[in-house]
Amino acid sequence: VENVRLLDRLSSRKAALGTLYLTATHVIFVENGSEGRKETWVLHSQISSIEKQATTATGCPLLIRCKNFQVIQLVIPQERDCHDIYISLIRLARPVKYEELYCFSFNPKLDKEEREQGWKLVDLTEEYNRMGVPNNYWQISDVNRDYGVCDSYPTEVYVPRSATAHIIVGSSKFRSRRRFPALSYYCKDNNASICRSSQPLSGFSARCLEDEQMLQAIRKANPGSDFLYVVDTRPKLNAMANRAAGKGYENEDNYSNIKFQFIGIENIHVMRNSLQKMLEVCELKSPSMSDFLWGLENSGWLKHIKAIMDAGIFIAKAVAEEGVSVLVHCSDGWDRTAQVCSVASLLLDPYYRTMKGFMVLIEKDWVSFGHKFNHRYGNLDGDPKEISPVIDQFIECVWQLMEQFPCAFEFNERFLIHIQHHIYSCQFGNFLCNSQKERRELKIQERTYSLWAHLWKNRADYLNPLYRPDHGQTQGTLHPRMAPCNFLYKFWSGMYNRFEKGLHPRQSVTDYLMAVKEETQQLEEELEVLRERLANLQKSQLNDYKVPSKQQDRSKQFGLSTSDNSLANTPQEYSNDLKSFPSRSPSQGDEEDSALILTQDNLKSSDPDLSATSDQESGVEDLSCRSPSVGGCLPSEDSGKDSDEAVFLTV
Amino acid sequence: MEFAELIKTPRADNVALHRPFYPAVEGTLCLTGHHLIFSSRRQDNAEELWLLHSNIDSIEKRFVGSLGTIIIKCKDLRIIQLDIPGMEECLNIASSIEALSTLDSVTLMYPFFYRPMFEIVEDGWRSFLPDQEFELLTSVTDEWRLSCINKEFSVCPSYPPVVIVPKSIDDEALRKVAMFRHGSRFPVLSYYHKKNGMVMMRSSQPLTGTNGRRCKEDEKLINATLRPGKRGYIIDTRSLNVAQQARAKGGGFEQEAHYPQWRRIHKCIERFNILQESLIKLVEACNDQSHNMDRWLSKLEASNWLTHIKEILTAACLAAQCIDREGASVLVHGTEGTDSTLQVTSLAQIILDPRCRTIRGFESLVVREWLQAGHPFQQRCAQSAYSNSKQKWEAPVFLLFLDCVWQILRQFPCSFEFNEQFLIMLFEHAYASQFGTFLGNNESERSKLKLPQKTMSLWSWVNRSEELCKFQNPLFEANSLVIWPSVAPQSLQLWEGVFLRWNRPSKFLDEAQEEMISIIKYNKELQAKVNALRRQLAEMETDDRMQENL
Prior knowledge:
The complex is a heterodimer. Chain A has 25 helices and 14 strands. By secondary structure, chain A is α+β, with helices and mostly antiparallel strands. Chain A has 2 domains: 4-94, Roll (PH-domain like), CATH 2.30.29; 112-511, no CATH class. In chain A, the strands form 3 sheets. A 7-stranded antiparallel sheet of chain A has the order 4-3-2-1-7-6-5. A 5-stranded mixed sheet of chain A has the order 10-11-14-12-13, with helices on both faces. A two-stranded antiparallel ribbon of chain A has the order 8-9. In chain A, strand 2 (15-22) and strand 3 form a beta hairpin. In chain A, helix 4 (165-173) packs across helix 5 (209-220) and helix 10 (336-348) packs antiparallel against helix 11. The longest helix of chain A has 35 residues, at 509-543. In chain B, a hairpin with a 4-residue loop joins strand 10 and strand 11. Chain B folds into 2 domains: 3-103, Roll (PH-domain like); 130-272 and 304-425 and 469-504, Alpha-Beta Complex (Protein-Tyrosine Phosphatase, Chain A). By secondary structure, chain B is an alpha+beta fold. In chain B, helix 10 (340-352) packs antiparallel against helix 11 and helix 10 runs parallel beside helix 13 (397-411).
């Protein structure tokens, strides 16, 4: 469709005229103009809602909201076209079969071997070995070999050695969806562990000997401690309500030596509504400070983030400081339990704060234990009530920790944002389906590619320049502050206003430091070369009389090559280099805003290079092709000034 | 008056000092004329705390049996608690502190007694003279002149002795204009934008009154700043409503009919007690130690602090936009032209002028646009967030300005030569200092107090390499362009470095800062090494060649 206008959310005056294309996988908007760079690509799987608004004199507005928090406003001249697009998008955004998803058509041009290699990057058996299991206390159980006991669990499950198959099966029958207690994290230093399960089917009085033996076995697998924490991550009221349905929570009297604890994290429906409310605040056009803060407070979002963090902190403390094992569950043990276990693991083990370790963590606590990615993130058309930002909240918890511990994580914010993006993109097979069983049946590993390999390949873009493996902050357990906690958790505009570049700091400290570090590395190399050359030259001067001509030749040649090298490192080059990084923003804020719509760099998911480098490059290009003095165009990247312009016009 | 008269108990032993995030320390408390000194006796880590009495905003006392407790709340927002054994000692100390921290006379303040322990390389009182500023101006334009009309502070008591005005306007006309402006603050040059020759002027409100008085000279003066055929903008920092109400008291605004080449824009920047209330509420919310974050955001919202930040920044961006993008000259004023006006003119310069983003340039900006421009520091900064006395003229105007600068710095972390610490240091010294720089309300008062002769300038201390290195931003790369900050609520944040400074442990953030510095330092060292080697090699090669030629 031609002559479509893409509106800038922040200022209605600046609309871009262009052509809209619908392909099998993407919505593409190409702006008219000499340079074909200005393209906006949106994957169908990212579309969360489409809204057709009342037709106006200028055309028919179409509002597309995306799961990665992009909001696109189009105005289509013909009402009929608009309707067609609307109908097509509704269909395209809600595929009914897995085969329709992008990952089955996405081909990053890797051969079979590379693909297999990619899937092997994260190996959970290796991970459990790293933790130190199997050992005297823990073993792999094959009880779930053919998903016979629990179809949402992995085939390989780690359980206490003393838990026989009889106990496991018995316990599984007493647990919601047969999700029996299994090992999530094991702490080598003190034998304390984190186990996970679903709620017991205790009702008002039911009990199960095998389940009681199972918990006993978990406690005994930690000989240093004489009790076990059982953490129910639900609000007490919810758990009690479940008893009426024959579910519920453990009765301390029936289980020997457990300490039972509620930690009130709300359910998926509350979380979905909370996010919805927060996004409404983010979408406000030129909100006042009060609108924004009120809206944020009312959404309750940060309160929920804090609840999840608090649960993780409680468990990490029990394991690291008290040396007590913890069994965590919620209702089905696949949402809140996954959040809490992974936050606790992240706090406990520095490995999970590395890039590789973080991939392992998501694979372990989320993918393998049957977090229902398909339902929660709406990959296939399904019940909208199943959708909830569960892993988004976990990812945000990590970001909040990164803000508090700037040197503790090997990866940067971009890494988190790109993972979030791909959980919804369906470009890679990792997060398809609701369980390992379904993924195996679909032969995901043979038919799609792994996100982890893709991220690993581009890992240079995801490094936190402040991270040093030997830094104090990197070591041991993280102890986040609990109180005063009022201002600990902040709004993450980098995520929720991700596509409104004008709102973000215009110069990135991370990028700047990464450029400096890169240059440092080059300097180190050059220093080595220069030293070598110097040594050679000194030697040659000593040997001068013996083989003068030959040596001379060599050093001359050498000199040439290094002078090339040095050219790349002259101070001038340095400043250029630096300019190209922060200047994705500096100053030309006004130019920047014209680049605001230029989001395809982040979005062009068909391009396997979903990396920030392309972003920066385009930023630089943008700056170079526009002189800072293109008068007339007002710096209006922010709402505040927009309203001033209104004053301008009316006065 | 002798300070000794006020100090009934100069010393108390076995005092316990409590601070957030530190274990309590036992030690000795001493009171001197200007300081409260606490020193711990422990050998292993002897520690001293020196607190200027003038930094104390309020004190509270409590008694449990014979153990007295004094809670001291400082203007820099720190709160400390002292447990003093002995009812009488405690009472004496409390009343002494109270008396010493509320001395009436400026000449009893510490700057008049302070003897510097450092070598003075450069006299800060002479570092930023108007003549130098004017010299810079004459190198780019000759349309302006330095007027000594206010030499004896006879025309405008809150202006400096010399001001920059359009060349075509003589002193006689200036005198008439001064009669037409509130507090005689006639329009003067604040900033000249080299890029396009546009200017920013500032003044106070015109005294039009209800019957629409006009002043031909005023109109002429303002129009003299316009290029032929160009228009200008008057940014009134009050809402239209407030400006209209001001007419009843003899004030007012420029009528369009009399200033046809000018468009007036009203922005609403709050003043006085509204700002002070806002600060008090904000600090209260920040000091709330409760464990739930239920109401944190609504408390932050209710304080309105960030709303003020947004309003001020927006007005400054607007002024900068008019100058740089619209190619128009701008006149900024509110009522007196000593508060919101200065916030706007100084922030606009930070946006427009790269020089103001350097350490020296920023100091010069503070001197020009705040000290010389007659911001009444002594009145505004007499009390801070913990004060009980609600004087009408106390207001965190300067702190809001610094906060706005911090917001821009946060958005452009590589474009400023100074760091956050520099801004925090200026905040501290504006409220309590051993230096005379921020004493008095204007140049006239400072000259009567003979501050340059009797006190030390803050700049003399700051501008030494030992101090400067603490305030340098390691990420700084000169950026010659105009920087446009975002004023969307998502982009504005609470300035934790000031407001949460004393109630958050900053270890991890400090470590990150150190890491950053060491990364950059290592890079620079390597560069130096590589360059040295390159030179050495080049020399050796030439030697070689020469030998060969021989």
